[in-house]
Amino acid sequence: MSAFLQYLISGIAVGCGFALLASGLVAIHRVTRVVNFAQGMFAVVGGMTAGSLLSAGLPHGAAETAAVLVAGAVGLAAGLVATGKRGTSPQSALIVTLGLGFLAYAVEIMIWGDNPRSHPGLGGSVIVFGAHVQKQSFLVIGVAAAVFALLGLFFGRTYTGKALTACASNPYAARAVGIDVVRMGLLAFALGGMLGGLGGVLLTPLQPISYNSDVLLITNGFAAAILGGLDRPGVALAGALTLGVAESMVAGYGAASYQTVVALALMLTIMTVRASRRTALQEEAAR
Amino acid sequence: MSAPARRPLPSPGTAAAIAVAAVALVLPVVLPAPQVSVYVLLLISAIVVTGLSMLMGFAGQVSLGQAAFTMIGAYTAALTATHGVPTWAGLLLAPVAAGTAAALVGVPLLRLRGHQLAFATLAVQLILLSVVGRQEWAGGDIGLQGVPRLTVAGYEFADDVAYAYLALGALGCTVLVVRNIVRSRPGRGLRALATSEVAAASAGVPVAVYKQAVFSLSAAFAGLAGGVYAYYIGYVAPGSFPVLLSFEYVVMVVVGGAGTIWGALAGATAVTLLLQVLNDVGTREGMPASAPAVLSYAVYGLLLVLVVLFMPKGLVPTVTDRWRRRAPARGGAEAEPEAEPAPVK
């Protein structure tokens, strides 16, 4: 029972990290229709930057915030390249973000080398009903919950958030009422960068990352986001939690090396089931 | 094909094909020994890229996991050969196994389109890599060593030059098959479905069957390449077929131009040569140990971004378009209308 609780909480924590990543993916896709392959890279950049700033002597909190801002700037830059040029289709933009991921590999290896890195988070663990749970897990869950609440307020209550939602639901109408759709797309990319970076900053103390961790991060984020059809952040959150807990349970009770297989198989199943409900006509009409 | 009867002189395309084939045949003999192995690996990539280019350019489907099928082909060849099956049979089985695997995987997967299919194929490769790395019969993460050399009718393919000709032959078969499919009636159906599945279906194109067939066929070519690779290197492991290899194939297709055979060949050649040059630069004295990796990643990234943004059709279509526009009088108008590659989705 205590083992179960331990796996459950660490699974939820990891799931929250995936959820942040997935919500960045959703924010970008909703506004720009681009599936951002570089989303995992934002997390790697965020996590690594936080580690470097901490070892440079910045206090906790400041280092993490700065890392998230750096990731946001990287997100903005990625958005500029991927959507800045007129007439780039969302499909081409996917390939562009793939290319940006490669460029990031080069930069990351130059700065941080190619070994997995980690940075200290909240140290120690607490005992809950006999289960040892790292304090960092609770931090991840708490921060993620706060961020999701803030995101809800941002999209629902602020003018910018509503403008973003308007671009998501109908870019043409949004443009007609004077919303700069291109700028909103860039804003979405910056937001996506920050969310991805935050996910990376929070997860790195739990699982060390290296430059090529982005493939697994992006497939996990995508798996979570695809549950909500890449458009609904709430469903993405539920998907990410399911994924995190499933992986943690498989790692705990089965073999650790099969945890990604389970996550990926889950994603494939969900995708194909969803796809069988949508016909080609609906997809082409939505373009 | 009645083309020769209509045009007594070979068209520029045919002339170029003959010239390229001649150069390709001479190269293994004239190249210095270390370069021959680069040439063999280039040819092996070109086989995969030609198949992938057909899938991306004509059927409009992106596969980010094409190396998974190369891996299946390589393991098939290696496993059968180490279990006493004649190696020539192993080479034939490699594309069959990869094609069959693709057909099975394709049943659920090909309902997906665009970025979903791209991620799904990536997921399939990640699953395959993880599962194979755990199988004892497949050698686990260490892989299979001591794959015997390919022997056909008593002739053993022993040196690099022999493998260069083997790979050339395999590439030639691939190019011929793809060329004939593209020009056939099903080929036109394929291009139609890449533009709009609904329109193609209502015009009587069996969309699901065609997608399935092209997916399997492109996987079979990847499997063939994997088979040649296994006998050439003599060793297969999960690490030989990383996700990065799949991305590399996509880079080659996009750089050369999806949906044209010339584009596939040019893309594979350009990227391989560029990486080779950079590798030489990166391993010079005084360079840090990480230099080759940094340089190659930077080049992949830059190539992909710049080509997609500024040359969306890819190298070969852009160049031929420009050439045609500059010389409209010289048969540009009467030249056989080249198949317009479908947009990649």
Automatic annotation (TrEMBL), chain A:
CDD domains: TM_PBP1_LivH_like. The chain crosses the membrane at residues 6-28, 40-59, 65-82, 94-113, 138-160, 181-203, 250-273. Its main location: membrane. Signal peptide: none annotated. Pfam families: BPD_transp_2. Keywords: Amino-acid transport, Cell membrane, Membrane, Transmembrane, Transmembrane helix, Transport. It is a multi-pass membrane protein. It comes from the Bacteria. It is found in: Cell membrane. Belongs to the binding-protein-dependent transport system permease family. LivHM subfamily. This is Branched-chain amino acid transport system permease protein. It comes from Actinomadura algeriensis.
TrEMBL record, chain B:
The chain crosses the membrane at residues 12-30, 36-55, 88-110, 117-133, 162-182, 189-209, 215-237, 249-275, 295-316. It comes from the Bacteria. It is found in: Cell membrane. CDD domains: TM_PBP1_LivM_like (cd06581). It is a multi-pass membrane protein. Keywords: Cell membrane, Membrane, Transmembrane, Transmembrane helix. InterPro entries: ABC_transp_permease, LivM-like. This is Branched-chain amino acid transport system permease protein. It comes from Actinomadura algeriensis.
